[in-house]
Design goal:
- The structure is a single chain.
- The protein is α+β, with helices and mostly antiparallel strands.
- It has a domain at about 55-150.
- The protein has 2 helices and 5 strands.
- The chain has helices spanning about 15-25, 40-50; strands at about 55-60, 90-95, 110-115, 120, 140-150.
- It has a 5-stranded antiparallel beta sheet, with helices on one face.
- About 35% of the residues are buried.
Length: about 150
């Protein structure tokens, strides 16, 4: 995996998603859509980009510690059932930059994780070797994982 770092670190308008996706595919930053700039069309472009790389969205998995029981069938416990992009997955965590003083806000940050819930790349260059606060559970603070699997021919 080629680690691509954010160029924009700004609450609500950072490019962590673009940088994480570029990293997963060993791609240049400029070759990945600027999802944050796409407004309500970001998800469509997100799926289109993965499809252009030979992957289709399967499901979203939720951290049962952070979500209520309505997502029990989509628990992160199922992550090992999937292959992802060469064993890598796009995930969200509560932003370590904007979640302080023991409070977890709804401000999210995109990262790349593996099947063992390890954050293998955090695209914010200021987060290198950071110890994520409040993330001592078995999922390392992962909030959700978007699962994309290879498209079957």
């Amino acid at each position: 995996m080629k680690k691509v770092y954010q160029r924009i670190v700004d609450i609500g308008h950072g490019d962590c998603m673009q940088s994480s996706i570029a990293s997963m595919f060993d791609e240049e930053y400029e070759n990945v859509p600027p999802f944050v700039e796409l407004g309500t069309e970001w998800w469509e472009k997100f799926e289109e980009y993965f499809a252009s790389k030979g992957y289709k969205w399967k499901t979203v998995l939720y951290n049962p510690i952070m979500w209520d029981k309505t997502h029990k069938d989509s628990s992160l416990d199922r992550l090992k059932e999937f292959n992802g992009v060469n064993g890598l997955f796009y995930a969200t965590v509560c932003s370590p930059k904007y979640n302080t003083n023991g409070e977890l806000s709804g401000i999210l940050h995109a990262v790349v994780v593996d099947k063992d819930f390890n954050i293998v790349h955090d695209p914010n260059p200021m987060n290198i070797n950071i110890k994520y606060p409040h993330y001592e559970d078995i999922y390392h603070g992962i909030r959700t994982v978007e699962v994309f699997e290879p498209i079957e021919n």
